[in-house]
Amino acid sequence: MQKWEYKSMLRTRGWEQTRGGGLLGAPSYGATAWSPAIEDVFVLGEEGWELVSVVALSSEPGWHPSSDFAGFTDSQLWVFKRPKP
C-alpha cells in the first residue's frame, strides 16, 4: 500500500488603502501581494509535491466600517502530498 507524506503552506496577504476614495468619500481598499509568491510555490512540484487542496480563509468580516466590504480572503491553506520513499 502506498504511503504519503504531507506538507501544508499558509499563503497570506493584507489590504491597504488605495488612492482615491470610495463611495461618498469613504476610503477605498485593495489587496497586497500574496506571500509567498506563486512562483515560490511552483518549485514544490520539482520536488515531487502534488497539490491536493486549497482552502480560502478570511479573518475579515463581510462588512468594514468605512466601506461596503463583502469579505476578504486574506489567507489560503495549501496542502500537498508526495509518495514516501
Structure description:
The protein is mainly beta. The protein contains one helix and five strands. The two termini are 13 Å apart. The model has no long low-confidence stretch (mean pLDDT 83).
Briefly say what this structure is.
With 85 residues, the chain is mainly beta. It is built from one helix and five strands.
Please supply descriptive tags for the structure shown above.
85 residues; mainly beta; three-stranded antiparallel beta sheet; two-stranded antiparallel ribbon; 5 strands; 45% strand; elongated
Gyration radius over CA: 18 Å
* Strand proportion: 35-45%
SS field, number of helical segments: 1
Helix content: 10-25%
Quote the average pLDDT.
83
Describe the sheet with the most strands: 3 strands, antiparallel
Sheet with most strands: strand arrangement: 1-5-4
Structural class: mainly beta
What is the chain-wise order of helices and strands?
A: EEEHEE
Shape: elongated
Poorly predicted runs of 5 or more residues: none
User: How many angstroms does the end-to-end distance come to?
Assistant: 13 Å
State the total count of DSSP E strands: 5
SSE diagram, text form:
Blueprint: E1 4-12, E2 15-21, E3 27-31, H1 38-46, E4 50-57, E5 75-83
Antiparallel strand pairs: 1-5, 2-3, 4-5
